[in-house]
Amino acid sequence: MEKLDIRHQHLERYILPLREGGSLPALAEADDGFRYVVKFRGAGHGNKALVAEFIGGEIARAAGMNVPEIVFVDIDEDFGRTEGDEEIQDLLKASRGLNLGLHFLNGAITYDPAVNSVDPVTASRVVWLDAFLTNVDRTARNTNMLMWHNNRELWLIDHGATLYFHHNWDGWEKAALSPFPYIKDHVLLPVAGQLREADEQLKELVTPELIERVVNSVPDEWLIEEGSTLTPDDRRRVYIKFLTDRLAASSSTFVSHAIDAREKLV
Fold first, then answer.
1. Cα gap 15→189, rounded to integer Å
2. CB 71 within 8 Å of CB 30
3. pLDDT tens, 181-211?
4. 124-134 b/e with 16+ CB inside 10 Å = b?
């Protein structure tokens, strides 16, 4: 089973909570000396948010987007022990084991559509990606994009809200072949005037083979759900089939719908 080469580090120092997100991620330092934005398995949607973050982030990277390096990070019982906030202590206790870290982009600022601009090619690629991954969280209210390196580079973050079909496994086959209605709220949709071109180009990068390699790299322990008879490999097969079916039908489903949604805006 072919997998991605993902680094695995141990967290050593809890620095501070990042309270902008509802799942209460944190800035922490690992044993490699680097700082990471840590997404905790004990928060919000638990392991499913980590699965979505990993699959969404690595597919975005394969599609040529700037995405912070994703690292597997271990948390033991001593991590964050000096943190005085009881809510954070409870979160860390519930998150012992394997979590997800994203390399911290020091000095990056939040993308603001009123201040920052994105060219039509890049905008179309990001819109295509989010319609493919069913990402509900790239709106003007919460862009989940950063500008880095003198505000010249667009970086994509926070893919934990992608693949929302997995919050209810029933009907995933239909969901794979459905348009993505929430694309109408995408912050970059008004600029995304080259969606057909993006579809052709990105399908050369986001291939069924790439999807399989990314999904195979999801850790087993993130794919175990209490009370479910589905094994990690059962869930992997669903993710792979959902994404490959969606990819094959892209032009007639989510791409056409996104184009129609954009025409109503411009």
1. 36
2. yes
3. 999 999 999 999 999 999 999 999 999 999 9
4. bbbbbbbbbbb
Task: Count helices and strands (H / E) in the chain.
Answer: 8, 8
> pLDDT of 110-119, one tens digit each?
999 999 999 9
Note the pLDDT of residue 184. 98
**Residue pointed to by tokens 């929430």:** 182
CA distances from 62 to 85, 102, 142, 250 (A): 38, 16, 24, 17
Rounded CA gap, 207 and 236, in Å? 16
Which residues, at least 6 apart from 266, have a Cβ–Cβ distance to it below 8 Å? Answer: 190, 193
Task: Tell me the whole-structure pTM to 2 decimals.
Answer: 0.95
For the chain, percent of residues with pLDDT exceeding 70 = 98
How far is it, in rounded angstroms, from Cα 195 to Cα 44? 33
> Which burial class, exposed, middle or buried, applies to 259 when counting CB atoms under 10 A from its CB (0-12, 13-18, 19+)?
middle
pLDDT tens-digit readout, 37-84:
999 999 887 999 999 999 999 999 999 999 999 999 999 988 877 777
How far apart CA 34 and CA 18 sit, in angstroms, is: 17
What is residue 21's predicted lDDT score, i.e. its pLDDT? Answer: 58
How far CA 259 is from CA of 90, 95, 164, 181, in Å, comes to 45, 41, 22, 12
Q: How many alpha carbons fall within 13 Å on the CB side of residue 31?
A: 11
- What is the edge-to-edge ordering of all strands in the sheet holding 153-156? 109-110, 145-148, 153-156
